[in-house]
Amino acid sequence: MMFLAEEIEAYSVLHTEEESELLKSLNRETHANVLSPRMLSGHLQGRLLSMISRMIRPERILEIGTYTGYSALCLCEGLAPQGKLITLDINEELENFTRRFFDKSSFVNHIDYRIGNAIDIIPTLDDSFDLVFIDADKINYKAYYDLCLEKVRRGGFLIADNVLWSGKIIIQENTKIDKDTQALLDFNRAVHEDKRVSNILLPVRDGLMILQKL
Ligand SMILES: C[S@@+](CC[C@H](N)C(=O)[O-])C[C@H]1O[C@@H](n2cnc3c(N)ncnc32)[C@H](O)[C@@H]1O
């Protein structure tokens, strides 16, 4: 499901800051060489993540779901001078591809890229985070939320991608709800009802849940 008319989306992209040459080539090479390139955040959402990060000026960012590193590089654009982004992905097959782009970036010394299961790694992190971006397996969104929120500082932010799940969160009568859709329905409800946070579900691309810890 397209949430915006195609022409409106194209117009928005045309009137949005361009991607850097590095992001353009990462976008291109991901589409040419990597499975499921739709997972990459892309130009418009990437510029939004960069803008949000530049508004916050985070010292510490945690990303769950690196894929080929596009959103990580966008989020790095807002890092404070001594800032650090930790990004986690379970897929070791993408490591060489992704590291090549991190190595070419001016943020290379600010990125801590770890391969492994985020569910195991997050509890081992001692940092307190100014910004968390959840963009991995949907079934674990609520678990990531619970593990991460305690590590977000008061006033810090958490963003979760794909919370509209191509519109599947709108349940038609007599349709069977698959596990990922149910997980996202549970996540969206839990966040919305959580008195510890203030939230907005932004219908950009596949839906971004943005929340601030009170
Ligand atoms: C949608 S992609 C991330 C896209 C990326 N954030 C971007 O915008 O370019 C989801 C990624 O989550 C990773 N992933 C899935 N389950 C995971 C887990 N349990 N721990 C860490 N990463 C996981 C996948 O390997 C995949 O690369």
TrEMBL record:
Top-level taxon of the source organism: Bacteria
Keyword match Metal-binding: no
Swiss-Prot/TrEMBL GO biological process terms: methylation
InterPro entries tied to this protein: Cation-dep_OMT, SAM-dependent_MTases_sf, SAM_O-MeTrfase
Keywords: Methyltransferase, S-adenosyl-L-methionine, Transferase
CDD domains to which the protein is assigned, alphabetical: AdoMet_MTases (cd02440)
Gene3D superfamilies: Vaccinia Virus protein VP39
Presence of keyword Iron-sulfur: no
Entry GO MF terms: O-methyltransferase activity; S-adenosylmethionine-dependent methyltransferase activity
Protein's name in the database: O-methyltransferase
